[in-house]
Amino acid sequence: MSATDSTPAGITYASAGVDVEAGDRAVELMKDAIKATHNDSVLGGVGGFAGLFDASRLLSYQKPLLATSTDGVGTKVAIAQAMDIHHTIGHDLVGMVVDDIVVVGAEPLFMTDYIACGKVVPERIADIVRGIAEGCSLAGTALVGGETAEHPGLLGEQEYDVAGAATGVVEANAVLGPERVQAGDVVVAMASSGIHSNGYSLVRRVINHAGWALDREVSELGKTLGEELLVPTRIYAADCLDVIRTFNSTDSAPVHGFSHVTGGGLAANLARVLPQGLMATVDRSTWELPAIFRLVSQLGGVPQADLERTLNLGVGMIGIVSADQADAVVEHLTARGLPSWIAGTVAQTPEDAADAGADFVQGAKGVDGGAVLMQGTYAG
Predict the structure, then answer these.
(1) For 316-368, how does the pLDDT look when each residue is reduced to its tens digit (9 = 90+)?
(2) What is the three-class DSSP state of 276?
(3) Tell me, what's the pLDDT at 2?
(4) 145: part of which helix (H) or strand (E)?
(5) Where is the PurM-like N-terminal domain (predicted)?
(6) Which of 191, 187, 196, 198 is nearest to 373 (CA)?
(7) Which helix (H) or strand (E) holds 372?
(8) Residues 340/248, Cβ–Cβ less than 8 Å
(9) Angle at CA 229, nearest 5°, toward 380 and 191?
(10) Which letter does DSSP use for residue 241 in this model?
(11) I want to staple 362 with a disulfide (CB 3.0 to 4.6 A). Which of 28, 31, 339, 371 is the partner?
(12) What are the φ and ψ backbone dihedral angles of 266, each rounded to 5 degrees?
């Protein structure tokens, strides 16, 4: 028998598990949401091979630096899939990407997304992309392109993963970072909306261990467990950029840096944006742990040190600001609807700082930067 004889007749792409027509229907369902993020700098429509962005505005810069970032949302997608709720996960994706860009003072200009799934369900894909588009609108970022890939046999029919990348721009002499941070600066904490998009492997392990269902009503949360776990990541880009434009328009430029609190927790991410020789002391008593973090701790018996190096614990973004403008920055952010407070100070690193043990972090994520000391007990 020849190889030809043993091959079943009539094999098509559709019979192999890829539905091209479903992909086309998904694009039709998401087009309006994508277009709503476009401004005059976006050229062409939805469906092109590449998104085009008019970069003429960069001509007004003395020395424009492009900033780029890429990320996903991790195993939070498992919660979305289990609950069959897909319109919020896009907010998480945008937040994870654009808020890394704003840390250096850059304005995120445009974003692209990538969705891999086991089966294209047009309505589900459109929900995901609508969420991405809504997040881009909140960040003032254009969604200029994306890709949906069907991977039958690799992913289950109900499974998908999302990723995205964004590009921003900042004037070279306006870049924020460790070189601007000074002893005497103040740490400004900005509240998270919940767990955001990091640490879900720990969270899922805890709730599975406890045997809690996602539809369980939890009085401390005021909603079901699943609803709490799907609260979208807060997007800080517009707030941070507004602070920069408001306060750094003067020669003093009191806003020296930001730190996006993602995987690794507050201390590790803050240490990345501090220079060697300086240490931020963060006072836990300046805020109360939100209920969801207390719940994870109690249900899993998770040690505080592990919580702090995994979850944001109520602080999603940090600003490092000169002491004379810190109160004004807090008032400004609070007036914009973003709860903020002074959580610590920056000073020279004491020689015995490392004696604090787990409360002390020196450098992180490959960055040989400054140090962070966590002290005190959480309020409440």
Answers:
(1) 999 999 999 999 999 999 999 999 999 999 999 988 888 877 899 987 777 77
(2) coil
(3) 52
(4) strand 142-150
(5) 65-170
(6) 187
(7) strand 367-375
(8) no
(9) 45
(10) H
(11) 371
(12) -65, -55
- The two tokens of residue 166 are 């964004």
User: According to DSSP H, which parts of 309-370 are helical?
Assistant: 326-335
Q: Counting every residue, how long is the chain?
A: 380
The residue behind tokens 């091979």 is: 49
Is residue 193 within 8 A of residue 233, CB to CB? The reply is yes
Residue whose pair of structure tokens reads 């476009």 in the numeric block: 38
44: amino acid identity, one letter:
G
Q: Which two tokens stand for residue 316?
A: 């999603």
Name the residue among 36, 31, 33 with its Cα closest to residue 46: 31
Instruction: Give every residue of the chain whose pLDDT is below 70, as ranges.
Output: 1-9, 11-27, 29-34, 36, 44-48
CA 351 and chain centroid, separation: 34
Tell me the angle at which helices 89-101 and 237-247 cross, rounded to the nearest 10 degrees.
Answer: 30
Cβ proximity of 126 and 84 under 8 Å = no
DSSP 54: -
Q: Are 319 and 246 in contact (CB under 8 A)?
A: no
Q: How far is CA 357 from the centre of its chain?
A: 29
User: Residue written as tokens 């190096």?
Assistant: 309
